[in-house]
């Protein structure tokens, strides 16, 4: 979010849309790759919707063509898009991967989560006793 705010203040909206479009298409492709890998490694798990493997493989072929063409035609935009994605890596390591955090870091993360939920009007159910209506 911080990188996006900085880009919005410095650049124009068209450039930001290009960055986000590259990121979206990259994530779509990685999702389809994950679907194919799961179909190959765990063929017996329950799937509510099951399609012929030709559909995701065809999508992946077009995706690869578009992604390679984007990297060739606009390498700077793609590079900045990758940098925007990589800004999430420290957040992952600080918030998820680091298990034995000090209490002050846990309190900071919890307060930021609560603030973000209030800001975006998002409330997740608590793990405690359910209240009666």
TrEMBL record:
Phylogenetic lineage: Eukaryota, Metazoa, Chordata, Craniata, Vertebrata
Keyword Membrane listed: yes
Protein's recorded name: AAA1 protein
Gene Ontology MF terms: L-amino acid transmembrane transporter activity; neutral L-amino acid transmembrane transporter activity
Classification via PANTHER family: AMINO ACID TRANSPORTER, ASC-TYPE AMINO ACID TRANSPORTER 1
Chain's gene name: Slc7a10
A single GO BP: D-serine transmembrane transport
InterPro entries membership: AminoAcid_Transporter
Alphabetical keyword list: Membrane, Transmembrane, Transmembrane helix
Cell membrane recorded as keyword: no
UniProt-listed Gene3D superfamilies: Amino acid/polyamine transporter I (1.20.1740.10)
Transmembrane segments: 16-39, 51-73, 79-98
């Amino acid at each position: 979010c911080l990188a996006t705010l900085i880009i919005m203040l410095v650049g124009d909206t068209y450039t930001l849309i290009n960055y986000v479009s590259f990121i979206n298409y990259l994530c779509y492709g990685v999702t389809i790759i994950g679907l194919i890998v799961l179909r190959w490694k765990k063929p017996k798990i329950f799937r509510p919707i099951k399609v012929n493997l030709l559909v995701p493989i065809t999508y992946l072929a077009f995706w690869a063509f578009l992604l390679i063409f984007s990297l060739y035609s606009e390498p700077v935009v793609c590079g900045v898009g990758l940098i925007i994605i990589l800004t999430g890596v420290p957040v992952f390591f600080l918030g998820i991967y680091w298990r034995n955090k000090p209490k002050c870091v846990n309190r900071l993360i919890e307060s930021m989560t609560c603030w973000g939920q209030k800001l975006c009007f998002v409330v997740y159910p608590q793990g405690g006793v359910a209240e009666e209506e």
